[in-house]
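Problem 12. The chain below contains 422 residues. Write out its predicted structure in token notation.
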Amino acid sequence: MSKNWYRLDTAALIFPAITRLDWANAFRVSATLSEPVDREILQQALNDLRPRFPSYFVALRKGAFWYYLEESRNPVLVREDYAYPLTFMGRRELRQNCLRVLVYKNRIAAEFFHALTDGRGGILFLSNLLARYLELKYGLAIPREGMIRDPGEKPSPEELEDSFLKNAAPVAASRAEETSYRLHGTREAGGFRHLTCGVIPTSALLDKAHEYKVSATAFLAAVMAESIIGIQDTEKPRSRQRPVKITIPVDLRRLYGSRTLRNFSLVLNIGADPRYGDYSLGELCKTMYHQLCAQATPQNMAGMIAANVQPQELTLLRLAPLGLKNLVMDGVYRRSGEKGGCLNISNLGRIELPAPMEPYVRRMEFIIGPQRSYPNNCSVLSYGGSTYINMIRNIRESELERRFFSRLVELGIPVDIETNRR
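Solution.
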């Protein structure tokens, strides 16, 4: 029997090439329910979603010229959550499935190899898994609205498309960018990841951001940049410092009206150069906000899309064997992939579920792992009146979290701290 297969989308092409023995680009979305999870019912709900969302139930395959995704021969089995979030997703596992579904007491978590989708696609999948689970367990009638799809309908071609190919500009934007300051520390043995979650009232965050006349994302980026500038100040004089830039993923679906469930986001690096002088928090807020507004336009992003799409169309690269492609892509990633930022702040914004689901879902979270060449990352999601800021690191030192969350408290934003620290 033939199996469905999918070309990797434009953003996903790089991920198999740069995966290492101790690192895979993955992320997690999770929901905490009001009652313990019934694993058998969750398994049935997961099985029911497979025909509706086929691009998530796939395995990574290696061809002569490109990696690709193929319908998995193996079911995705609900497993007990273990160890720490985002344990290493190695090639042996990816050849079976690129998706995990994990349960711990009241919590359901889905972890994705980033070649499948981005955070927006991940949270849509989790929301539909929750909806189907609640229908089966409690007999709820959940309306098909917002992110919730009918599990009985066929996926539309638009959901499976590579939207990058449709929206590239004729001319590519330059990749040239000055190298940012790099956070560093003592790497943990065995790949252990420290996770610190700051839970804050969404209203308090928005009120403070509006006080500075910026968005919540720009405000958090400004506080993060201020914290990192403080760390760099302890290490070297201003004249020898590097720019401090925060990497912000931008969901392109809103800009271009795309319905794809695959990757369709690009990152912008926004920040300040401490060599030019001191910045107040208000000045950092303005700097971050205006850079984000100026760069996140359809025209500018189309040029950035073209910079990723056009190399795929080069005859020499298309005909090169996969091993050579991997070397080229790995070299490009080392030179320009992460050098422009200190860490990500990936904000999925406010997540809304249909009203019948709300009493059963107490909490939702989003966690991205550390990148290959820098040890800290930050992800943000708001649900039910609370904003969950997850800071993850693979080093022992917790100075960044201490500075960042302490600064929020100084600004009058209450923060409840949760951690998996040993």
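Discussion. The domain at 189-419 is CATH 3.30.559.30 (Chloramphenicol Acetyltransferase). Students who got a different answer should revisit the alignment rule from Section 12.3.
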